[in-house]
């Protein structure tokens, strides 16, 4: 038997999951929560065998919440259940410690397979996500030769991803702000990106950071 915890701010999603698991005695629902605060309170009382966690909650960022939960309960298997099919979200959630990634609307068979898989300590990705990653990997291999970053560019890109300003990057690397701006321009040119958000996302997708 694997007990289930569900966290989602949409009552229809919770109702749908409860209905899907209603006739399965091996997968009883231990609790449901609508936000991060409720979730933490529930976890302090009882741990489920597997937690289904949405990325977007009214009071929490699912990625940060996942990291915080696993810091306190490192053995808890977490499956991301979301509408976000962008690879950047997949990478962030898996890096934060989630064992699985499913898209909302997944079928019963896939959900149960995901629950069983992560409960056994293995990773599980939605089939659609697997295909997207494969496609991205193939595309990345085609473009990897063209995208070569210098050591300094890689350092700056990592700091940009961690939300450092140009001045903070300059201070940390003992450079002038003008030099940092020059490196950022070079990164934008190499990755064909026009702003910081796009720069970081593209860097994640290409596995550069």
Tags for this model:
single chain; alpha/beta; 6-stranded parallel β-sheet; two-stranded antiparallel sheet; Rossmann fold; 10 helices; elongated; 209 residues; 13% strand; 55% helix; 2 domains; Arc Repressor Mutant, subunit A
Mind explaining what this structure looks like?
By secondary structure, the protein is an alpha/beta fold. It folds into 2 domains: 123 residues, 3-Layer(aba) Sandwich (Rossmann fold), CATH 3.40.50; 59 residues, Arc Repressor Mutant, subunit A (Orthogonal Bundle). 55% of the residues lie in helices and 13% in strands. It has 10 helices and 8 strands. It has a 6-stranded parallel β-sheet, with helices on both faces. α1 links the parallel β1 and β2. α7 packs across α9 and α8 crosses α9. It is elongated, with a radius of gyration of 20 Å. The protein starts with a strand and ends with a helix. It comes from Parapedobacter indicus. Keywords: DNA-binding, Phosphoprotein. It holds the Pfam family GerE. This is Two component transcriptional regulator, LuxR family. GO terms for molecular function: DNA binding.
> What's the number of helices?
10
Give the biggest sheet. 6 strands, parallel
Q: What class, by secondary structure content?
A: alpha/beta
CATH class of the largest domain, named: Alpha Beta
Number of E strands: 8
CA-based gyration radius: 20 Å
Strand order of the largest sheet: 2-1-3-6-7-8
């Amino acid at each position: 038997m694997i007990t289930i915890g569900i966290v989602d701010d949409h009552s229809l999603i919770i109702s749908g999951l409860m209905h899907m698991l209603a006739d399965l005695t091996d997968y009883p629902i231990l609790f449901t929560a609508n936000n991060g605060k409720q979730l933490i309170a529930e976890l302090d009382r009882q741990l489920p065998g597997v937690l289904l966690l949405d990325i977007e909650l009214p009071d929490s960022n699912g990625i940060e919440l996942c990291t915080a939960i696993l810091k306190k309960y490192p053995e808890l298997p977490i499956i991301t259940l979301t509408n976000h099919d962008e690879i950047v979200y997949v990478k962030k959630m898996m890096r934060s410690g989630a064992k699985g990634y499913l898209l909302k609307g997944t079928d019963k068979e896939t959900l149960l397979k995901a629950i069983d898989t992560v409960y056994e300590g293995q990773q599980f990705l939605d089939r659609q996500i697997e295909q997207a990653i494969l496609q991205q990997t193939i595309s990345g291999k085609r473009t990897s030769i063209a995208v070569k970053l210098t050591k300094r560019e890689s350092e700056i890109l990592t700091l940009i991803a961690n939300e450092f300003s140009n001045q903070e990057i300059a201070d940390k690397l003992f450079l002038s702000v003008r030099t940092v701006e020059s490196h950022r321009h070079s990164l934008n040119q190499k990755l064909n990106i026009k702003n910081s958000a796009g720069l970081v996302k593209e860097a994640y997708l290409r596995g550069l950071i």
